[in-house]
Write a structure and sequence with these properties.
Low-confidence stretches: 1-31
Radius of gyration: 24 Å
Length: about 700
C-alpha cells in the first residue's frame, strides 16, 4: 500500500483539472434541484440539499421504519414526481421489508454498522448531485451524495456502481449506507444500463430524472430511444404492436464494455463537486487522488464494474476494490486452472452468455431431479420431460445419445443435472437451478453484446406487457410511469419476454408452444441464443455470432489491478454467477499478472448463493452473503485507514445453515456466520500454486 500511495502522490489525474469547473455556490435546503455548471464531459448537473428531516440521503425521508414498510405510493400514479420516484428507488435498494429472521436489519443492512444496529431513524442530511454523461442511448447517469458529516480532514469517496441492471440508486442501501455512515462521499452510476425504456406503441420514454413523457416532448432529456425513424416505428408497431425497447438490450452500445470507465468518471465527478465547496479543513490543493481515499465497490454486475475500474485505472485514482459475487467475463485463462478438494473442476472461466445460455437449455429438465426445490409446483412436468428428450444429440455439453441409451428416458434429468456440473456449476446448486431459470437473461445479453436493435428481434425475442393468455397488450400509463422505481433494468413491470415466432402468433415466452401445440418453454429461441454464444463453423446466424463475440471480447477482465488491494467475497452455491467462472479463476489471473504476488484476497462462503432471499426452503439452507459483503468493507476500510497492513488470506468460511422447517427456520445468529479471519486454518486456505487455484 505505501508504494501505491507514493505513486498516487506523484500523479495528478484529470480529476484535479475539474476543480475549477464548478463555481462556488451556497447550499441551502431545497425542495427542487438547482442547476449548476457541469464539469467537462457532464451535463444536466443538479443539486439538492436535504436537511435530514423532511428528506435525506439514505432513507429518502422514510426513516428506517419507512424502509421496512410498503412501497411508498406517489400522489398521482400516472404522474409521479422525480422526488417520489427517487424515494421508491431508495426504498427498494434497502430491501429491509424482507424481515429480520435471516439477519437483515439485525446483523447487517442499512441500519447496521460494524455489527451493531444504529440508533435513531437513519436519516442523513447532506447534498445530492445528479449528472449525466453522453446522450440518449449512450447516456450514463451519476449521483454523488455528500453527507453534512463529510470528513474533510480525512476525505474519502466510495464509488458504488449499480448492481445487476439496476438504476443509479440501487446501491444506496448497501455500499451507500456503509459509506455515508463513515462520513464519505458516495458516487453512484447506473453504468449506462438502468431502467430507461422506449414504448414503441405510445411513444413514452424516460427522462434522466426518472420521469416519463412523450418522446417528442422530452427531446434531449430522454435517457434512451430505440433509434428508429418515425416511419420505422409505425411499421414496427403495426407488425408487432405494444412492444417496448429497453436500454440494456437495445441501446446498440454494449454498455458492459465501458463499466470501468463509468466508475472512474463517477469518482472524478465526486472530486469535482467536493471542490466546489471547499470549507475549512479541506486538504491543501483540494480533493484529488493524492489527498482522498477512494474505494470502488459493488455487488454482482456492480462488483464486476468495480473490478473493471480497478483494472482501467492506471493513474492511481482508486485505492482499493471490494466486490461481492462479481459478474466478470474473463480473458482466456492461458494455463490458469482451478481445483476444488484436490479435483480439477470440469469448466472454469466461461463468460456469462455461454454458461447462462447452456443452463437455460438444461434447467427445465434438470429440475425434475429436485421436486422439493422452490418453484417446482409451477413446473410443467410433461414439457420438462420433452425438453429432456430434445437435449439428446451429438453436443457433448448437453446429453449425448450414448449416455441417453444407457440411462433410459427416466435417467435423462439426472444426465441434465450432470451436464450443469460439467459446465462448472457446483453439484449442490441443483436445488437452485429451477429458481434461476431465466431465458431473458441470455437473450438480453446476446442482444447487448451484438449491438442489436429492437427491430432485429434477435432469435425471435421481444418484450411486452401481456394479458392472462400471454398476448401482448398496451401498457397502462401508471406502469410506465413507475419504471424508475420498480423496474430491475429490463422492460418496465409487468413486461415480459415474448416469443415472436410462436406457431400460433407472438406470445409470452413462458407460454410458448411447439409446432404440435405443446408447451415447450420456447426451445427454438433458447437454442438460437445458445448457438450464437457457442458458434460452430458454418452455422446459421454466423454474422450475429461474430458480432456477439466481438462485443463479449470488449468486456473481458485481465486480472491486472496494477497493484491495488482487492477483497472479493462469493457464495460457493451461487447459481447466477458460479464461482468457477468468476472469482476463483480471477484470483489466478491476478496472481499471474502480479508475477505470483496476488493483491486479491478471496473469501468463499459455504451455504451462500447469489441472493439473500430467505423464502421457505431457502431460509433453512442458506446464509446471507450480504453479511460478509458488509464485513469485507469493514476489513478493507481498516486497512486503508491504517495505510498498510495485510488483508486476510484467501479462505473458505464454513457457515452453519439455520435448519428447521421451511418457512420456520430459527433466527440467524452469529454462530451461523463465523467471521472472516486473519489466520484461517490450513485446511480452509485458498492458494494459487503454479497457476492453479486450489480451493478446499
Amino acid at each position: 500500500m505505501p508504494s501505491v500511495r507514493r505513486r498516487r502522490r506523484r500523479l495528478r489525474t484529470s480529476a484535479s483539472l475539474l476543480t475549477v469547473a464548478l463555481t462556488a455556490a451556497s447550499l441551502t435546503p431545497a425542495a427542487a434541484a438547482a442547476e449548476a455548471p457541469p464539469p467537462p464531459g457532464f451535463h444536466h448537473l443538479t443539486f439538492v440539499h436535504y436537511d435530514g428531516t423532511g428528506d435525506d440521503l439514505l432513507t429518502a425521508g422514510l426513516g428506517f421504519d419507512g424502509l421496512r414498510g410498503p412501497l411508498p405510493a406517489p400522489a398521482d400514479p400516472d404522474r409521479p414526481t422525480a422526488a417520489e420516484l427517487r424515494r421508491q428507488a431508495i426504498w427498494a435498494s434497502a430491501g429491509m421489508r424482507a424481515g429480520s429472521g435471516g439477519g437483515l436489519g439485525r446483523l447487517y443492512g442499512a441500519n447496521v454498522d460494524r455489527g451493531r444496529p444504529l440508533p435513531g431513524d437513519g436519516r442523513i442530511a447532506g447534498t445530492e448531485y445528479r449528472a449525466v454523461a453522453g446522450r440518449g442511448a449512450d447516456s450514463v447517469s451519476f449521483v454523488v451524495q455528500v453527507p453534512d458529516t463529510f470528513d474533510r480532514a480525512r476525505p474519502c469517496v466510495v464509488a458504488a456502481p449499480a448492481t445487476g441492471l439496476g438504476g443509479v440508486y440501487s446501491m444506496v442501501g448497501t455500499a451507500g449506507a456503509w459509506g455515508l455512515h463513515r462520513g464519505c462521499a458516495v458516487a453512484y452510476t447506473d453504468k449506462g444500463m438502468g431502467p430507461a425504456f422506449d414504448d414503441l406503441h405510445s411513444g413514452t420514454v424516460m427522462a434522466y430524472d426518472g420521469t416519463t413523457g412523450p418522446r417528442t416532448a422530452l427531446g434531449d432529456r430522454s435517457a434512451f430511444g430505440a433509434g428508429l425513424t418515425d416511419a420505422e416505428r409505425a411499421r414496427f408497431d403495426a407488425a408487432r404492436p405494444y412492444r417496448v425497447a429497453y436500454k440494456m438490450a437495445h441501446s446498440r452500445t454494449d454498455p458492459q464494455a465501458t463499466w470501468g470507465r463509468d466508475v472512474l468518471r463517477s469518482v472524478r465527478l465526486a472530486l469535482a463537486v467536493l471542490n466546489r465547496d471547499r470549507r475549512s479543513g479541506a486538504p491543501h490543493g483540494g480533493y484529488t487522488a493524492a489527498t482522498t481515499t477512494v474505494l470502488a465497490t459493488g455487488v454482482s454486475n456492480g462488483g464486476g464494474a468495480a473490478v473493471a475500474a480497478g483494472e482501467d485505472d492506471r493513474t492511481g485514482l482508486i485505492d482499493a476494490v471490494v466486490a461481492s459475487e462479481p459478474q466478470m467475463n474473463l480473458a482466456p485463462r492461458g494455463g490458469i486452472r482451478v481445483r476444488q478438494g484436490g479435483r480439477a473442476v470440469p469448466a472454469a472461466g466461461l463468460p456469462l452468455i455461454r454458461y447462462n445460455s447452456l443452463a437455460s437449455l438444461l434447467q427445465p429438465c434438470a429440475a425434475l431431479t429436485e421436486p422439493s426445490a422452490p418453484g417446482y409446483a409451477t413446473l410443467d412436468v410433461p414439457a420438462a420431460r420433452r425438453r429432456c428428450a430434445a437435449l439428446v444429440g451429438d453436443d457433448p455439453r448437453l446429453i449425448t445419445r450414448r449416455a441417453a441409451e444407457r440411462a433410459g428416458e427416466g435417467g435423462l434429468p439426472r444426465l441434465a443435472a450432470r451436464a450443469l456440473v460439467r459446465a462448472g456449476f457446483q453439484p449442490q446448486s441443483g436445488y437452485l437451478q429451477l429458481s434461476h431459470y431465466d431465458p431473458q437473461t441470455p437473450a438480453s445479453y446476446a442482444m447487448s453484446y451484438a449491438r442489436a436493435s429492437v427491430d432485429d428481434a434477435l432469435c425471435g425475442y421481444g418484450w411486452a406487457r401481456t394479458d392472462d393468455s400471454g398476448t401482448p397488450v398496451p401498457y397502462r400509463r401508471s406502469e410506465l410511469a413507475a419504471a424508475f422505481g420498480t423496474s430491475p433494468g429490463r422492460a418496465p413491470a409487468p413486461g415480459m419476454l415474448i416469443d415472436e415466432n410462436a406457431p400460433g402468433g407472438p406470445v409470452a415466452d413462458s407460454k410458448s408452444r411447439d409446432a404440435d401445440g405443446r408447451h415447450d418453454y420456447n426451445l427454438r429461441g433458447e437454442r438460437c441464443v445458445y448457438r450464437l454464444a457457442h458458434p460452430q463453423r458454418g452455422a446459421d446466424g454466423q454474422g450475429w455470432a461474430a458480432r456477439l463475440a466481438a462485443g463479449l471480447d470488449a468486456t473481458r477482465r485481465s486480472g491486472d489491478l496494477h497493484g491495488k488491494p482487492a477483497l472479493i467475497v462469493h457464495g460457493r452455491d451461487d447459481t447466477r454467477v458460479p464461482v468457477n467462472h468468476s472469482s476463483r479463476p480471477y484470483l489466478g489471473l491476478n496472481a499471474r499478472s502480479q508475477h505470483g504476488n496476488s493483491t486479491v484476497s478471496y473469501v468463499e462462503v459455504t451455504h451462500a448463493h447469489h441472493s439473500d432471499a430467505q423464502t421457505p426452503g431457502l431460509d433453512t439452507r442458506y446464509v446471507p452473503l450480504g453479511y460478509y459483503y458488509q464485513q469485507a468493507l469493514d476489513v478493507m476500510w481498516q486497512r486503508l485507514r491504517a495505510r498498510g497492513g495485510e488483508l486476510p488470506p484467501s479462505q473458505v468460511v464454513r457457515t452453519v445453515p439455520r435448519g428447521g422447517e421451511p418457512g420456520h427456520a430459527p433466527e440467524l445468529t452469529r454462530a451461523n456466520v463465523p467471521p472472516i479471519t486473519a489466520d484461517p486454518p490450513a485446511g480452509d486456505r485458498v492458494r494459487v500454486i503454479r497457476g492453479t487455484v486450489r480451493v478446499p
